[in-house]
Amino acid sequence: MLDEEMGRSGVFAYNLAELHMVLEETARLKPDRIKQKEILDWLEHENAHMNVAEATGHTGLRYLLLCVEDKTVPLGVSFLPVVLTDAPDSWTPEEVLEKDIQVLLAPRAYGNKLSPSDAHSLLSNRTLISKIAGRKNSSK
Amino acid sequence: MRIAIHLLDMTIGGLPGSSGEKSPAEKMRELIQMEFASALKNPITQKRIDEIDARQWKINDKFYKTGIRNPKEEAES
């Protein structure tokens, strides 16, 4: 259901070559704003997330470039590239959170920077892990 | 390796004038342009992204608290 909705407002890509073509299209649509440097930076950042997500065993991996309504910019949309992942059913809550943290931190490990949303999710995941550990300790 | 083969295939198929048929890369680019045209007409709002995030957090939070997943709820999200 979510994929369907996202698909209406964005473009999915299932490998790096496809993502490159999708990002090049953004530059064609906004030549004054999006240059090769931005495209390479996006590719590097999302590819880092994807590489680590593959290594951690996440499933359902795909890239998505979302068109987000924004009246302040040309075309009335901003572009938001994301990597979507699923966690296998067999993972415990701690495993899900710890592996998500690895995926969130991936750009830094590859020499890129974390996005504000990466940093926000990272903080939330770490807080949740502490809460789960606290609950476990108090029930002992 | 799969990506390398895919790229090679696109390069060969993409040589200009090599045949009247469209290369895989050209077909893919056309598909992407069509999807863009549709997405640009239906951009998502930041409010809707926040709603989706909040719903996802709610579902995940239940799982983090109980360790039990709810496949029905996850499928509907």
TrEMBL record, chain A:
Domain of life: Bacteria
The name this protein goes by in its record: Uncharacterized protein
Organism lineage: Bacteria, Candidatus Nomuraibacteriota
From TrEMBL, chain B:
Native source species: Candidatus Nomurabacteria bacterium RIFCSPLOWO2_12_FULL_44_11
Top-level taxon of origin: Bacteria
Protein name: Uncharacterized protein
